[in-house]
Design brief:
It is a single chain. This protein is an alpha+beta fold and 232 residues long. It folds into 2 domains: 8-43, no CATH class; 63-224, Glutaredoxin (3-Layer(aba) Sandwich). It has helices at 8-14, 22-43, 91-99, 101-109, 126-138, 143-154, 164-173, 178-186, 189-203; strands at 63-65, 71-73, 80-86, 113-119, 211-214, 217-219. Helix 3 (91-99) packs across helix 6 (143-154), helix 5 packs parallel to helix 7 (164-173) and helix 5 (126-138) crosses helix 9. The longest helix has 22 residues, at 22-43. The termini are far apart.
Length: 232
């Protein structure tokens, strides 16, 4: 008589092995997929392009900073002060930058307007990275070039828009001293400026970006002021 060998399942049963429940298999597979996706996002190559003409866009315009460390474009003695509370991750902020900000540059060049950008880490986790990148570029005199670049990226990339690696690539493409830029990003000195911006945002009771103040008066849009008059 031929002896029948026990089936594989019978052998496994004798060894005390049991097939794991379906929910365990699902969790393991989901975890592996999540790890694979994370590895892809971390390792995939990124781009950090800068807009055409960004290097000369603000040529000849006076630059500086407020006492709180917010970037100023134009003379601090200009009679009209426009303060812009904006986030680099905010679509409406980009719309203002792309469609309206350009109209102010002639007034800034003429010494009639000073424009202050107050960076708010608002809407999305990348907003703070972006603000830090702009302020660190400002340490090398290129805040406004990075400012333009960050808004340029907003509708160019779908994911990892303000990944720190992309910000470093943008800084490199702007010709910044990279060891100094990376040292700035690694420090907490810039965070104090961003925290001051957030404090000012909260102090004025603001809830959204962009929000504008013209000579201390809150407006929805700087064009509500029919005349950016030059009287103090």
């Amino acid at each position: 008589m031929t002896r029948r060998l026990p089936s594989e399942s019978a052998q496994l049963a004798r060894a005390g092995w049991r097939r794991p429940p379906l929910w365990v298999v699902i969790i393991v597979v989901a975890t592996l997929l999540a790890l694979a996706a994370a590895a892809y996002l971390l390792l995939r190559p990124l781009e950090g392009p800068v807009p055409d003409g960004v290097e000369v866009h603000y040529a000849g315009l006076e630059r500086g900073y407020t006492e709180q460390g917010f970037a100023r474009l134009g003379s601090p003695d200009a009679p009209t002060l426009i303060e812009d509370f904006s986030s680099y991750a905010c679509p409406h902020c980009r719309t203002f930058h792309d469609e309206q900000f350009e109209d102010l540059l002639d007034e800034i060049a003429a010494g009639q307007v000073q424009f202050v950008m107050i960076p708010i880490p608002h809407i999305g986790s990348g907003a703070r990275n972006a603000a830090r990148g702009a302020l660190c570029a400002g340490e090398q005199g290129k805040f406004w070039e990075m400012h333009d670049t960050l808004f340029y990226w907003q509708d160019k990339f779908l994911t990892s828009v303000f990944d720190e690696r992309r910000i470093k690539l943008g800084a490199e493409n702007l010709g910044l001293d990279m060891p100094a830029f990376e040292q700035c990003l690694a420090s907490d000195q810039i965070d104090r400026v961003i925290d001051a911006a957030r404090h000012e945002f909260d102090r004025r009771g603001l809830t959204g970006t962009p929000t504008f103040f013209v000579n201390g008066q809150k407006v929805q849009d700087y064009r509500e002021i029919e005349d950016l008059n030059t009287s103090s």
